[in-house]
Amino acid sequence: MDTEPRDQAGREELVRRLEREDGFENETFTDLELPGLELNQKEFYRCTFERSQFQESQWRQCKFEECTWTGCDLTRARFPQAALRGVRFEGSKLMGIDWSSVSANPELTFEGCVLRYASFVGLSLRKTDVLRCTAQEANFFDLDLTDADFEGTDLTGSNFRGCILTRTDFSLAVGLVLDPSRNRLKDTQVPLSTAVSLAESMGMRVPALGDVAGAPASRSRKKKR
Fold first, then answer.
1. Residue 111's pLDDT band (boundaries 50, 70, 90)?
2. d(CA 170, CA 104)
3. What's the pTM?
4. Rounded to 5 degrees, what angle do the CA atoms 119, 101, 137 make?
5. Residue 203 pLDDT
6. What DSSP letter does each residue of 134-170 carry, written as one string?
7. Do 133 and 153 meet the contact criterion of CB atoms below 8 Å apart?
8. Rounded-to-integer distance, Cα 96 and Cα 205, Å
9. How far is CA 79 from CA 42, 60, 133, 161, in A?
10. How many of the other CB atoms lie within 10 Å of CB of 210?
11. How far is CA 32 from CA 55, 77, 124, 142, in A?
12. Alpha helices (runs of H) in the chain, residue ranges in sequence order
């Protein structure tokens, strides 16, 4: 009978600790409802955030190392000058976040997250995994995405401009549109649908897959006539 009051008291104590303490290690923060939370210069090492509400929160100059966010809502959260090293976001809502102000060279993994309307500008995101996410209408500008992987991610309506896409793997992404004149492509893997749209944008015609095998035979018959 007393479990819920104790849980509530525990959550309230966690909130007080977040406000007064500077560093946390191997801590788990669960079922918190803290929309609009503002924290400055806190350090989190190997911490886990679970099923918590942090909409429009601010984490100014905070440091996260080997931390995981699972099932959290961080819609329109801000991370100005935050250091992110080995940070994973799993099954979380990250809508409308502008990641451009985080510290240089963040190490991030996104899996099963909602990244709709997010902005990534001027960052090195080499080897970043964006797996099975919804990233519709997101902006990817002036990024180094070398060896990044977008497996299973929906990129419908997203914009890529000024990006280094060396060995970037979009082969299992959905809705990808790339302008080769605005990005640096080298060994970039793209879906067939994207390759076709690129070819058509350059004035080429791509026969339907079912007709490809028969195309040489048709040309041979034409020559006989």
1. very high
2. 24
3. 0.85
4. 5
5. 74
6. B-TT-EEES-B-TT-B-TT-B-TT-EEES-EEET-B-
7. yes
8. 38
9. 12, 6, 20, 23
10. 7
11. 11, 15, 31, 35
12. 3-20, 192-201, 209-212, 215-224
Separation CA 77–CA 38 (nearest Å): 10
Map out the domains of the chain with their CATH numbers.
Answer: 23-205 (2.160.20.80)
What whole-number distance in Å separates Cα of residue 36 and Cα of residue 56? 5
Q: How far apart are CA 7 and CA 108, in angstroms?
A: 31
pLDDT band at 223, cuts 50/70/90?
very low
Q: What's the rounded Cα separation, in Å, for the pair 150 and 110?
A: 10
Tokens of 176: 């990808």
How is residue 16 written in tokens? 């007080």
Q: Which of 134-138, 191-195, 204-208 has the highest mean pLDDT?
A: 134-138
